[in-house]
TrEMBL record:
PANTHER family: F-BOX DOMAIN-CONTAINING PROTEIN (PTHR34223:SF58), OS11G0201299 PROTEIN (PTHR34223)
Origin species: Brachypodium distachyon (Purple false brome)
Protein name, UniProt field: F-box domain-containing protein
Signal peptide region: none
InterPro entries linked: F-box-like_dom_sf, F-box_dom, F-box_SCFL_complex_component
F-box domain: residues covered: 18-57
Taxonomic lineage from the root: Eukaryota, Viridiplantae, Streptophyta, Embryophyta, Tracheophyta
Length: 170
């Protein structure tokens, strides 16, 4: 069916209204998304290509909807993300480790420690780490030294009711 004059005029005036929003609002919106979804927005438009790198929040999580097939795939994504992301300040960093039920030690401890160091270098204010390492607890050897960190939360998946939250105030 050929387009009428009004329809052609309307489609020509359709613009990307979301990209017209201020950066602060777009960054806030990106901060609400899991990081893998925030990165995917880079294909929406030229303006979005690098915007995810400045998000004030990292949501390093996996769930049933995520595209990660296994812990190694998740680990590689997060490691690449922190190499490519700008070191702009972080308000929050949530790290939800991929489930690992083996009896041996969690194989990605060094990677997780690197992610935490990165968050601290980005002046993170709230850091949440959730592990699902079976019955054993993930032991991190990271000095949590930061004048910016105000809340540190480590939740073991088997202790959902009991959160370990530490508040830091100057």
């Amino acid at each position: 069916m050929p387009e009428t004059g009004k329809r052609r005029e309307a489609s020509a005036s359709d613009k990307d209204r979301i990209s017209a929003l201020p950066d602060a609002l777009l960054l806030h919106t990106l901060s609400l998304l899991p990081s893998n979804d925030a990165v995917r927005t880079c294909v929406l438009a030229r303006r979005w290509q690098y915007l995810w790198r400045y998000s004030p929040s990292l949501q390093l999580i996996h769930d049933s909807k995520s595209r990660f097939r296994d812990a190694d795939h998740f680990n590689k994504f997060v490691s690449h993300l922190i190499v490519l992301r700008d070191r702009s300040p972080l308000v929050q960093c949530k790290i939800d480790l991929y489930p690992y039920e083996e009896l041996e030690e969690y194989p990605y401890v060094q990677a997780v420690q690197m992610w935490i160091h990165y968050a601290l270098a980005c002046q993170v204010q709230v850091l949440n780490v959730t592990d699902d390492c079976g019955q054993q607890r993930l032991l991190l050897n990271v000095p949590f030294i930061s004048r910016h960190l105000t809340i540190l939360e480590h939740l073991h998946q088997h202790e959902k009711k009991r959160k370990r939250k530490t508040h830091f105030w100057e």
